[in-house]
Automatic annotation (TrEMBL):
GO biological process: arabinan catabolic process; xylan catabolic process
UniProt superkingdom: Eukaryota
Protein's name in the database: xylan 1,4-beta-xylosidase
PANTHER family: BETA-D-XYLOSIDASE 5-RELATED, SUGAR HYDROLASE-RELATED
Family in the record: Belongs to the glycosyl hydrolase 3 family.
EC number(s) given by UniProt: 3.2.1.37
């Protein structure tokens, strides 16, 4: 279509006010809202939100059910973009504009790497820094107050393109990670620094598998798997962390698209988890509502877009994100065709704006967090924390003859080969912003005074020329190969079909190993099957780094040179490449059956490296307190929890006596150590639990003379099992806590008495 210049000008002028420009706080002292209760900071958030909604006209309400809200000009409320991203740092995305003093923001490692740190204080600190920077961007009119992070779906299938956005495959680990991160993002007080969003609710971890895509996939999930595996991070977010927002996912669950799923969004989320109307809204994943109607490629769950909008809103979705692939949702037309009710419209407004009230949107320029500004972005502390996060998340997978760390000396020369050896951009991964600096491994090695010969290597190219790499290797005394995959290979809307090492990289590693010098493979990204390189004699060491963020190169070189000691643990099971032909991606079942091998460390038996694997530069021993009781009575424990708290309790949160432990460093290098505690035993119906992560703790700087001590905390939920109806049950029986991976020592105790249901699960619709 050809528009004249004048026509173009008119078209531009006719656009609604841009919602992308950054937050413009409403004027409460002089604007149209000045005598409205919404501006009264002493009134309750509920009262303030109700007063605001009462002042809105229906046509304005209908226009503001979308992410790019035009605002309420009669109320002096500017356009507002609900869609802002900050998965591992303030990101490049619609609601955020970069420039001036806000040209950079701290870029932490992706969640898969901080997942490997098993350090929740670190994750909480990261949340504080990200939200502080995000709020500073917002205060400067460069972002808004809602951030659609974290991504806490358990990483079920190794092909998933977005697995690196999550903390890993284990629901308990993801729940703890989410707890720490949401607390960091929102803050602990009544006013939120920013509003966090836990996504994607629920059972989402497929982008595309043949003609099945995330827009039309119907995830068939048993009630047991849903409660035990897919939902715990969301229960943590909603029920326990009171996150400000939840995003419903593209896929359907048992026949009903998640964004129109009343069972998930109302029966479970709002009612069973008590995530009431008071401070939170559900936002749809972008275009999810479009794809649940009659759109091509979607669920075809409803026969028109209007009906889809009605189904989503009536089921409990409060804001429809539109990604511009689909058609913009027309809420007014859906409302006029009676696809949803006035009460539903008012409730959606109430939920959306209570979130903003709690983030201080109407509290004036002197309110909490409004003074955050450019000086609070990219602070030295943020830089240190980003480096520490990368170091803590690096996992030493293999280290023959204690080859690493490399002792530095004046004749040390290394060949640094591979696609990301000097490509710092690669280390950031998806949903990134602009970091204040990017330190790639080559730059970091040179800064340490190491003699470096750098040669690029292939990413996916299958017949790459290895001659330059081999000749660099011949001139050096150590070969560092930087391989794996990046987020052009695994990414949003693109799952993989293979988890093998890319052929060109494998062939280059084989040629480098044949040179006769020691080779260290440093692996970026998530799943690739290391089997073919584990048998190469000169490949002494393998490090896994995930996506280590802005200072990833420094972190890697610090570990290689021994300036930091590796103590991360795999947050995922590393599967053999044959797994992809044994487990159809669309099979959501966790348990094995027939030739289906099952999923995750709980059920899959033949990993290349197991979940929790991670070596050290030293050795450790663990001693649990021998005075830990051998027997508990279930009824006494339950009586105690109500006595201690004096209130009605979610019984799964009731603490179970902690186990004091001492960790001794039996080698000579100072190192952190992650204590992993897995439960197994004979309790409840057969088949008995295989092994379930029940508690963990990272101990810092453990030395031979300074052992690490900790109390391993857990609760009744860690001990309970989920039955086929979804009930969480505490059973009598014999429990064994296995410490470390592989197990170093165990603690056995008995629970006596009657089994007790800790959480009675609402039956799904039949
Ligand atoms: C449910 O939430 C409401 C409002 O947040 C709160 O008053 C109530 O105590 C909660 N119920 C439980 C069992 O925690
Ligand atoms: C220096 O370090 C390299 C790599 O560890 C080693 O191969 C070499 O023998 C060392 N040289 C001296 C003089 O120690
Ligand atoms: C561990 O030791 C390092 C190096 O001495 C220090 O910077 C860091 O603060 C220590 N960490 C903790 C948690 O004590
Ligand atoms: C626990 O440790 C004891 C003693 O080392 C060992 O005999 C037993 O097999 C272990 N139990 C499990 C379940 O690993």
């Amino acid at each position: 279509m050809a528009l004249s210049f004048a026509g173009l000008l008119i078209a531009v002028l006719a656009l609604p006010p841009s919602a992308n420009a950054g937050v413009k706080y409403p004027e409460c002292k002089s604007g149209p809202l000045k005598s409205n209760v919404v501006c009264d900071t002493k009134a309750s958030p509920e009262a303030r939100a109700s007063a605001l909604v009462a002042a809105m006209s229906n046509s304005d309400k209908l226009a503001n059910l979308v992410n790019n809200s035009p605002g309420f000009s009669k109320l002096g409320m500017s356009a507002y973009q609900w869609w802002n991203e900050a998965l591992h740092g303030v990101a490049h995305n619609r609601g955020i504009s970069w420039g001036g003093q806000f040209s950079a923001a701290t870029q932490f490692p992706q969640a898969i790497t901080t997942g490997a740190s098993f350090d929740d204080d670190l994750v909480g600190q990261m949340g504080i820094i990200i939200s502080t920077e995000a709020r500073a961007f917002a205060n400067a009119g460069r972002a808004h107050l809602d951030f659609w992070t974290p991504d806490v779906n358990p990483f079920r299938d190794p092909r998933w393109g977005r697995g690196h956005e999550t903390p890993g495959e284990d629901p308990f680990r993801n729940s703890k990670w989410a707890e720490a991160f949401v607390r960091g993002m929102q803050g602990t007080g009544p006013t939120h620094r920013v509003v966090a969003t836990c996504k994607h609710f629920a059972a989402y971890d497929l982008e595309n598998a043949g003609s099945t895509t995330r827009f039309n996939f119907n995830a068939k999930v048993s009630t047991q798997d849903l409660v035990e595996y897919y939902l715990p991070p969301f229960r943590q977010c909603a029920r326990d962390s009171k996150v400000g927002s939840i995003m419903c996912s593209y896929n359907a669950v048992n026949g009903v698209p998640a964004c129109a799923n009343e069972y998930l969004m109302d029966t479970i989320l709002r009612k069973h988890w008590n995530w009431t109307d008071d401070n939170q809204y559900v936002v749809s994943d972008c275009d999810a509502v479009y794809y649940l109607g009659n759109a091509n490629g979607g669920h075809r769950y409803k026969s028109s877009y209007s009906a889809a909008i009605g189904a989503a809103l009536e089921a409990g979705c409060d804001n429809m994100c539109w990604a511009t692939d689909g058609t913009q949702p027309n809420a007014a037309s859906a409302f006029n065709s009676k696809a949803f009710s006035q009460a539903t419209l008012d409730k959606a407004m109430l939920r959306q704006y209570q979130g903003l009230i709690r983030a201080g949107y109407f509290d004036g320029p002197d309110s909490l967090y409004r003074s955050l500004g450019a000086a609070d972005v990219n602070t030295p502390f943020a830089r240190e924390t980003a480096l520490r996060a990368a170091q803590e998340g690096i996992v030493l997978l293999k280290n023959d003859d204690g080859f690493l760390p490399i002792a530095q000396n004046s004749s040390l020369s290394v060949a640094m080969i591979g696609f990301w050896a000097n490509a710092a951009d690669k280390m950031l991964g998806g949903y990134s912003g602009s970091p204040p600096f990017k330190h790639d491994p080559v730059t970091a090695a040179k800064a340490m005074g190491i003699t470096v010969t750098y040669v690029n290597g292939p990413l996916t190219q299958s017949s790459a020329d290895s001659s330059a790499a081999v000749s660099a290797a011949q001139k050096s005394n150590v070969i560092l190969f930087f391989g794996g995959i990046d987020n052009t290979v695994e990414k949003e809307s693109q799952d993989r079909t293979s988890i093998s090492w890319p052929a060109g990289q494998l062939s280059m590693i084989q040629k480098l190993a044949a040179v006769g010098k020691p080779v260290v493979v440093i692996k970026m990204g998530t799943h690739v099957d290391d089997t073919p390189i584990l048998s190469l004699p000169n490949v002494k060491s393998i490090l896994w780094v995930g996506y280590p963020g802005q200072d990833g190169g420094t972190a890697v070189m610090n570990i290689i040179a021994g300036l930091a000691a590796p103590a991360g643990r795999l947050p995922i099971t590393m599967y053999p490449s044959s797994y992809t032909s044994q487990a159809p991606q669309t099979n959501m079942a966790l348990r094995p059956s027939g030739t289906y091998p099952g999923r995750t460390y709980r059920w899959y038996k033949d990993p290349v490296f197991p979940f929790g694997h991670g070596l050290h530069y030293t050795t450790f021993s663990i001693s649990p307190d021998t005075a830990y009781p051998a027997k508990f009575s279930i009824q006494d424990v339950l009586a105690d929890c109500t006595k201690v708290t004096g209130r009605t309790y979610y019984m799964d949160l009731c603490p179970f006596p902690s186990i004091p432990i001492t960790v001794t460093n039996t080698g000579s290098r100072t190192s952190d150590f992650v204590v992993l505690g897995f439960l197994t035993g004979m309790y409840g119906p057969a088949p008995y639990p295989i092994k379930t992560l029940a508690t963990y703790k990272r101990l810092f700087n453990v030395t031979a003379s300074q052992p690490g001590t900790a109390k391993l905390d857990w609760n009744l939920g860690s001990l309970a099992r989920v039955d086929e109806k979804g009930n969480t049950v505490l059973y009598p029986g014999t429990y064994t806590l296995l410490l470390d991976q592989p197990t170093k020592v165990n603690v056995t105790f008995v629970l006596e008495g009657r089994e007790e249901v800790l959480d009675k699960w609402p039956e799904p619709p039949s």
